[in-house]
Specification:
With 103 residues, the chain is mainly α. The chain has 2 domains: 56 residues, no CATH class; 47 residues. Helices cover 82% and strands 0% of the residues. It has 5 helices and no strands. Helix 2 crosses helix 3. The longest helix is centred in the last third of the chain and has 35 residues. The radius of gyration is 31 Å and the shape is elongated. The mean pLDDT is 86. One of its GO terms (cellular component) is nucleus. InterPro entries: AMY1. It is found in: Nucleus. Keywords: Coiled coil, Nucleus. Belongs to the AMY1 family.
Length: 103
């Protein structure tokens, strides 16, 4: 009988821990959202993961993506400048619409 009480005590401590840390409230709200869905998703686990934010990128991934974005923006800006410069050079060799009409 003492073994039963020790197990029950550990369960109660764990339940209080989950409640105090907000896990129970979060899980309850996600499960409630799933229950209230009119069109139940085919994959309930994906629904739960999505609503728990499990699919969010890790901070290291976020930093790598941010660095890649900065690099790509720099390259885009350089290409835009090059494009602008090449257009200006091209305009030097093309006759303007006014010149073409007088010939």
């Amino acid at each position: 009988m003492a073994h039963y009480r020790a197990t029950e005590s550990k369960r109660e401590q764990f339940r209080r821990y989950l409640e105090k840390s907000g896990v129970l409230a979060t899980l309850t709200s996600v499960l409630l959202a799933l229950y209230e869905e009119n069109d139940k998703p085919n994959n309930a686990l994906d629904f739960i993961k999505l609503h728990l934010g499990v699919g969010a990128p890790e901070p290291a991934d976020t930093e790598a993506l941010r660095m890649e974005l900065d690099d790509l923006q720099r390259k885009c800006n350089l290409l835009m400048e090059e494009n602008k410069e090449l257009r200006n050079r091209l305009l030097q060799y093309e006759p303007s619409p006014d010149e073409g009409a007088t010939e």
